[in-house]
Every structure is written in C-alpha cells, then in structure tokens.
Design brief:
Helix content: 25-40%
Distance between the termini: 44 Å
Organism: Dissophora globulifera
Order of helices and strands: HHHEHHHHHEHHEEEHEEHHHHH
CATH class of the largest domain: Alpha Beta
Strand content: 5-15%
Number of strands: 7
Number of helices: 16
CATH architecture of the largest domain: 2-Layer Sandwich
GO cellular component, one term: cytoplasm
Largest sheet: 4 strands, antiparallel
InterPro entries: CDC123
Strand order of the largest sheet: 5-4-6-7
Protein name: Cell division cycle protein 123
CATH superfamily of the largest domain: ATP-grasp fold, B domain
Family: Belongs to the CDC123 family.
Structural class: alpha+beta
C-alpha cells in the first residue's frame, strides 16, 4: 500500500517476525498468538479511506506532490493479462519519424497532433528504422501474415500522454503506485533497482511485474469483514470501481529517516524505524525524533483522518526541520508491524517508545525485503538467512535428495 508501499503497500510480515534483536524478542509462539488477536474490523468503506485519492486531498500540504490519473478499463485488462509485455515504444515515439527532411518534419507535427487528439490508430504506427518501401512488400508478406495473427500491441495513446505530461509537471522523475500499493516488490527489475521512473515504459514495466499491484487489482478487499455494498450474499468486492495510477514526485529519501506510526483508537501507541538496517547515529537522535513525530501526529493527523485505528508513514528531512506524510495503511495484520509484534500494539495500555534496531547483528538477521518475489519460494525458504557458502551447501543437498 505504501510508497516503497508501497509508496506505498501491504507487506508480508511472517518471515520478518521470526528473528528480532535488542528491544524485541519475537518468537514463533508470539507470532501464532498474534493471529488469534482481535483487530479492528476492516470494512469495504474503511479500506477505501486508505486509498490514495481518498486521503491525499485533505493532506496535500503535508505530503509529496503527486498526480492522480484514473486508468481506463482496457489498461486495467492489460495489467491483469498474463506475461510482462511492454510496448516497444510509446504512442509518442510511434507518432514521430527519424527523418530530418522538412516534409517528414511537417508529417511528424501532424502525426503528433493526431496522437494528442487520439486520432492516430495503431495500424498507422511506423516503428523507428522500419523500411516502408513498396519494393520490399512481397519479401515481407509472410512475416506480415504471421504478425496479423498475433494479438494486437497494447496501445494507450491518451493514457501515455497523460502520464508524460504528469512526469514533466513533477520534474521529470516520479515513482508510481495504484490506489493502495506501490510496486516496491518489483524494483529489482528496474535498471536503477528503485521505483524511479522517467517515462511511460519504466512505469508499465514496474506495474506489470508487481505482485502488490496484482493484489490491488484482484484481492484488495479479501480481508474485509462485511460484504460489498452491505448486501447479504454479495461477497467481497474483487477490485475498486476506479483504479487510479498515482505518480509521486521523486526525491532521494534517506531510508534511515522513514518511520511507521501505529494509531489505535485515536492514540499513537508505537513508532518504528521503517528500514530494516542498523543506523548507529539514530540512537543519539531517538528522543528528538520521537518528540517531533508525536507533535506532528497531535497537530496534523489526529482528528483529521476519519478512521480511529490506522498506521501512517512519515519521512523526516535530514536537517530534521520538516516531516512529510508518506502514506496511510490499515491497522491490520497484513500491514507490516516492523520492529513490533502486533500483540504488543493491540494490548499495550500506554504508548510504546520509539523502536530502533539495536545493533548491526539485528540488521543482519532481517530477511531481505521481497526476496520471495525474486526467487522460487523453496529457494528463499531454504536460505533462512544463511551465508552464501552455507546456503550453497544446503541447496546442493536438497537437489541431490530430490534426484534420488
């Protein structure tokens, strides 16, 4: 749900709650107990309050500058389709030629106008470097027949133009998310290994590669306690009525200064370091950071977000003079509790102190985020935080045993 989630991001927590150091002593027993605890009921209506387009207008001045684009149904179908097929070029690229001739430049201008007005059909696209001489038509006839039998290339000229204009208005670099989740689990597939996007193709690739995005499109409501529209027998809704693409201005944020805050029944009961890396300097700032976050909550958040229980993520600038609101998430087990156990957050009678990783050893024990999205599940299960050498030996033994 969040940016990172994210945004923005519904993160798995079972693996990360197996080992804790310093202030936290987690165990599989505690994790099992948490599953039996009573969380505030999550309804369709309450979940939709966590959608970006629901909360951002009220907190615009506190958050990162963003643009919201309602996605057309044919693009949602494209995201749901099997495979990661990204159009080779955007409609704008298709609309323009490589020629420097004046006549071709005039044609480019006409094609660009047609593209902006949505008048340029897919079959009029001419790819860069493509030979258009009639003399070659016969030689390529068989190849063209094969292409005609293939599914049409995804083509979203109006959407691509909206995205391109939004990127330009946000400084040329953005990170994307949908209603709740950002494709943080797919950042490994990007050339920069981040969510930073410069163009339409960057965004399409991340969205098509993300399980978090797929969750938003098909399973976002599956944990809701009520039925869609309050109608008995209707079941839970499969997807939001409107799917939004959110483009947020890119900043090089310091992961050490990101924090998740937990609010239960209107009370801030916990604050956790968000990045599972040990930062020695944070210990000396602990009291100052906690005071600033509590003040931010009391002055800016409390009473302005309509749900009584929720989590919110903040970023504190390096000079510690400003706090940015990054995202809201449900106070629910599918939201990562980070350095807390949900049992603590649900049962505590008073606010818990800001929790930071206590040592480098604690950081080394943290599982790599989203590793389960990069490799086969049996491989990540087998690794269990081992060194490369230990993992290689264990994996070899498993392969040998399977071959018998």
């Amino acid at each position: 749900m969040s940016i990172y989630k994210q945004e923005d991001e519904l993160e798995p927590q079972q693996q990360q709650q197996q080992e804790r150091d310093g202030d936290v002593n987690a165990s599989s027993t505690a994790s099992a107990a948490a599953t039996a605890l009573s969380f505030p009921p999550l309804t369709h209506a309450s979940l939709e309050k966590f959608a970006f387009s629901s909360w951002y207008p009220s907190f615009r001045t506190l958050s990162i500058k963003s643009k919201i684009i309602a996605l057309p149904e044919d693009f949602v179908d494209y995201l749901n389709a099997d495979g990661v097929f990204i159009p080779g070029q955007t409609g704008i690229s298709y609309a323009l030629s490589d020629s420097e001739d004046d006549e071709d430049e005039e044609s480019d201008m006409e094609r660009l106008r047609a593209f902006k007005e949505g008048r340029l059909p897919p079959q009029q696209h001419r790819q860069r470097g493509e030979d258009s001489d009639d003399d070659d038509d016969d030689d390529n006839e068989a190849e063209q027949d094969d292409k005609e039998a293939e599914a049409p290339i995804p083509y979203f000229p109006g959407l691509e133009l909206q995205i391109t204009q939004a990127i330009d208005s946000l400084g040329g670099e953005v990170f994307p998310k949908l209603n709740w989740s950002s494709p943080r689990d797919a950042s490994w597939i990007a050339a920069t290994n981040t969510l930073k996007c410069h163009n339409v193709a960057d965004i399409f690739l991340l969205l098509k590669s993300s399980d978090f995005v797929a969750h938003d499109l098909a399973h976002a409501y599956e944990d809701c306690a009520d039925e869609a529209g309050g109608v008995v027998g209707a079941g839970v809704r499969q997807r939001p009525e409107t799917v939004d693409l959110v483009l947020r201005k890119w900043y090089d944020l310091a992961p050490s200064m990101e924090f998740r805050c937990f609010v239960r029944d209107g009370e801030l009961v916990g604050i956790s370091q968000r990045d599972m890396t040990y930062y020695e300097f944070l210990a000396g700032l602990k009291d100052e950071l906690e005071e600033k976050i509590v003040t931010f909550f009391e002055d800016k958040i409390l009473g302005n977000f309509t749900e009584p229980s929720y989590t919110f993520d903040v970023y504190i600038t390096r000079n510690r003079e400003r706090i940015y609101l990054i995202d809201f998430n449900p106070f629910a087990q599918k939201t990562d509790s980070l350095l807390y156990e949900w049992e603590e957050l649900l049962l505590t009678k008073e606010p818990l102190p800001l929790r930071l990783l206590a040592s480098e050893a604690a950081g080394r024990h943290m599982h790599q985020p989203f590793s389960f999205n990069r490799y086969p599940k049996d491989v990540t299960d087998l690794s269990n935080g081992q060194t490369v050498a230990d993992f290689a030996e264990a994996f070899y033994k498993k392969v040998q045993a399977s071959a018998k």
